[in-house]
Design brief:
about 575 residues; alpha+beta; four-stranded antiparallel sheet; 17 helices; 27 strands
Length: about 575
Amino acid sequence: MIIFKLERERPASVVHENSVFFIKDRFLRKYTFGSGKDVAVLQLKHGDSNCQPNCLSYNPAESSIIVSTVNSSKSAGTTYYEVYQIGKDRGDRGDVQMGEGKRMKGVTAVWVARNRYAALDSSGKLLVKSSSHETTKTIELTGGIDYIYYAGTGTVLLRNPESVSLYDIQQKITVASVRIPKVVRVVWSNDMSHLALLCKRTIAICNRKLELKATIHESVKIKSAAWNEQGVLIYTTANHIKYTLHNGDNGIVRTLDLPIYISAVKDNNVYCLDREAKPRVLTIDSTEFKFKLALVDKKYDEVLHMVRNANLYGQAIIAYLQKKGYPEVALHFVKDPKTRFNLAVECGNIEVAMSAAQTLDDAAVWEKLSQIALQQGNHQVVEIAYQRTKNFEKLSFLYLITGNMEKLRKMQKIAEHRGDTNSHYQNTLYTGDVAERVKVLKSVGQRGLAYLCAKTHGMEEEAEAIAGSLPPEQIPQVPENAKLLKPGVPIMKSDENWPLLTVSKGIFDKVAAGETTSALDADAGVDIDVEVEGAWGDEDLKLEDGSEPDFDKSDGEGSGAGWDVERTLNCHQIWILL
């Protein structure tokens, strides 16, 4: 089924300061924002029923308006525009008279000065006329120009099927151009610093020099657009009101029941016209795009105010903050421990990550925390993470490199009680406990290796006892160049954290910590030192007087793979260790 549109549904309108002029039923009406006053200003001349107004251009200095009309029937005559004089108080007294407009043939016309307007005729010429409709300048245009738009005093935007150009009428030169095909409408910001070029399903954001800043693509037709006071473009599709910033960040503001055409956006109010040209006011929640705009403009004071007071939640805002490099801000919006942990890891906040890990108490989370803490040099957090995951091998090595021989001996005792022969033997190498090393080798049936270990380290009585239990042909010969294998003595026990990695602490972290700060501190970097309590002590290990340590011989839930107890040692590996 193919549906044809017989009449134009979009009301022709133009905004000036705090009001909008629009055409309804051949009447020019004026609607005032805020007060909601809607009055008829004048009645337009009756023309061909196939001709419908499609564009208005208002001159406040002369109180004049140009109505450009498009012919919806290709077989009918040419298009034309009309210039009407409006009294400044017309409509306020309730008198609506037939307008005495001057009708002229042409595609469209726009005001370019206090008493000058530019008109594009059907032959592609640009005519500059005075307010008395006398042609003062004729400019031959090339490039297939088919429409013109207002672009400020003395300039117009020229449109052809492939691009849009900024043209200086006085100097007769093209100032700038941008290649955007099939532009339908142009919407300027309030300060004329940016403009939005609206195509059927695309919006191009440009600055005054027509430098392309962002492009937004939609899957449905774009209906209308308007800039708010902060420089955010609010636009509509058939079903939604959406927004976009100068950098292209965009989102949905609210849904719509019926299509609307935006006239202006002020604070949280969207002033618009529906298909019946009836003024409407819709309320929107501007918190999201104001928050994003404050972040883009680095107005951190506003960001902090919104963090404390605004109702900003949802995965979309969190994903946006992560994408833009503000995970520390996203932490303020997140309650879920897993999400808080991931954000804290991303921004290097060990303190928050530690708190979330304690809540989750998951082996994978503790493992990730240990990696991040180790990168920052925070071995106290690394110790706790290894303890929670029962990662005894890494924990023993951590005690070795920090010179904590007391805890290394406790790890040796733990390995013995757990029945983990490999770990037990490895810890005897770390601690230099030769007697315990010989004991381990004997317990796994490696008496030849036990003999070599005892003989090499001068334990003659133990070596003779082991030799007596072996057949003469199985007693190994001690190499003449054999050397003692003893670990180095720690110079200093490292109880405190290593010099921590410098992590940038932004304005948001300072506020969360209750520090007085300003937006100027946002780029400053400081050292973050997280003190963590809860390292193992004698009372935690329960090793006094031969009591059992608080570990099962078989690993519980949360321990990684590779913890099965091996009762035999690989001889090749042990020869290397010796």
